[in-house]
Amino acid sequence: MAHLSFPAPYDFELSTGRYRAFGPDLANLWHDGGLHRVVDGREVRLTAAPGGVDADPLEPGAEPVLRRLLGAPFDLAAFAAFAADADETLREIAVRFRGYRPPLGPEPFETLVTSITAQQVSLYAAFAIRNRLIERLGVRAEQAYAFPTRERLAAAAPEELVAVGFSRRKAEYAVGLARSELDLDALADLLDDEVRGHLVALPGIGEWTVDWFLARHLARPTAWPAGDLALRKALAAFYPELTDARAAGERFHPFQNLTAHYLLLAYIAG
DNA sequence: ACCCAGGCATTGG
DNA sequence: CCAATGCATGGG
Q1: What's this model's pTM, rounded to 2 decimal places?
Q2: With a cut of 70, which residues of chain A have pLDDT below it?
C-alpha cells in the first residue's frame, strides 16, 4: 500500500464519477468503493484517503500512470483562482464542484480508441461496445481488465470489432490506427496544432477526437472541444448568450479544458 | 416502431 | 465553402 498525495481540496468520488455514470468501465472499474486499474499487467486498487489516494499495490514505475489517471497534471488551484474572478455562473460551478479533478486517459492509444467508440452514439452505447471490446481483446487481471494493446488490435481483423458492435467504418479506423506508423507517445512533445495535424491525417480521427485527446490525454490547458454535443448543450444552458461555441472558448482562456469539464459536470449533475 | 445520442467520411452542389 | 447521407448500439 502506498499513498498518492494531491493538494486539497480533492474529491476522489466526484472525480471518478465518470467511470460509473454510464455503466461499468471494465478498464477503469469501480468495485467495492475503489477504482481498479491494470498497470503493467498488475491490478491496482485506488481508494480515497486523507490528503489523496491510496494505491494497493503500488509497483515502482506505476506511479506516473496512476497520477495521470487521477488527473494530476491539472492545476486546480490556479483554476479556482481564475473562476473566483470570473462570471457568476462559472464562479458558482467551481465552488459547487470544488475538488473535481478530471481523470485522464493514461495511454494515448486507449484514449483514441475510446473516443472512436464514442463518436456519434450515446455514451451508454459507447461504454457497452467498449466493454465488449475489452472482454474480447483485453486481458483480465483480477476484477479489471487491461485495455487491448495496440499490438493486439493491429493483429485483429476488423470483423472482430464489428462482432462487438463497432460499425464497419469504426472497426477499420481502430485497426488502421493500431497499424499506422504514428508514434503516439511522441505526440506529448508537440504543440497542440502539431498534434492536431498528425492525428487528423488518420482516417476516423477528426477535430472532435483530437480536441478530447488534447484535453483528456495530454491535459493541454486550452483544449476546448467546441464541436462536442454535450458541451454545446451545457453552454446553451449556462450561457445562452454565447451562441458560437468555438468563440466562447476565448472567454475562458487559458483554462478552457478545466472549464469544459466543470461545465459538463454541472450540466450532467443538473 | 421511432428518435436521438459527447462524429466522421463521402458525395454532390 | 456548405448540405445531405449512412453508420451501429442503447435508452427513452
Answers
A1: 0.98
A2: none
